[in-house]
Design brief:
Number of strands: 12
CATH architecture: Alpha-Beta Complex
Largest sheet: 7 strands, mixed
Number of helices: 9
Strand content: 15-25%
Radius of gyration: 20 Å
Helix content: 10-25%
CATH class: Alpha Beta
Distance between the termini: 57 Å
Order of helices and strands: HHHHEEHEEHEEHEEEEHEEH
Structural class: alpha+beta
CATH topology: Sulfite Oxidase, Chain A, domain 2
CATH superfamily: Oxidoreductase, molybdopterin-binding domain
Bound molecules: ligand MTE
Length: 303
Amino acid sequence: MPSLPGAIAPFEITPEAHWRNRREILCGLGAGAALLAAGPSAAASRWDVSEAPNSWEDITSYNNFYEFGTDKADPARLAGGLVTKPWTVRIDGLVERPGNWALEDILKGMPIEERIYRFRCVEAWSMVVPWNGFELRRLLDRVGVKSGARYVAFETLVRPSEMPGQRRRILDWPYREGLRLDEAMHPLTLLATGIYGRDLPNQNGAPIRLVVPWKYGFKSIKSIVRITLTDRQPPTTWSQQNPREYGFYANVNPEVDHPRWSQATERRIGGGLFARRQPTLPFNGYAEHVAGLYAGMDLRKFF
Ligand code: MTE
């Protein structure tokens, strides 16, 4: 294809630049025309934060995904061999319609939205990520939660042939997480399938992962293969591994230090080596939406 001097070839346009274009189109036109031009995922949501999202590069190259190793560079380097098609999620426990759900069937008719969320890791770094996904409550409504259910448990795939970190007992596999049912039903809680309008890269938890923006990042379990509704608080990987350091709730709380470091501030990835640390906000800035879930609870005890 002939190209003009100085013109940008399509392969040079990053997902981020493409996404910015769509957003600019959206701001420049009337909403109806913009939606037609940009596709449904570009509509701004009431849950979006106003901070600029991190670059595609930042979001996809600095990850924790212990199934591929403990170094931040391991997931991007080693997750390419994970086969994510076909993908099945077993949904069981206290639900009306238990079974093995093909991902395509889960996604059928699900309104995929774009949500720009803050993401705060327990290790005191943070990012802003434009996720694509749907509210977990929509899936729970579809399978029908039975009246005795109080918690939702999640499990990640176990496949050591494709997940080299699982050939060692770094953690007690499968990686497990859990939410109280009201946390799971909160409209901020997403099942994400993409970033910047593209499918999730394997290192970010393809093809489907949880995003709970008011909790430390480890709650946001990746590559989910099982969702179980239960009447009892389920075991979670990090609280089993080290109950003194990691609790079931894992709400972002600048007033409760990790036993080995302060949680009062955070380093925004991509800000450069000398960027100032910024104060960490209670519930990662989502207090107005979620603080009510914990009314009357001592969050120093239930950390
Ligand atoms: N999920 C699984 N299955 N395995 C993991 O090691 N790490 C958690 C969480 N989910 C992890 C996981 C931690 S500690 C963080 S900070 C986030 O994933 C990182 O998500 P990101 O790669 O999208 O930034």
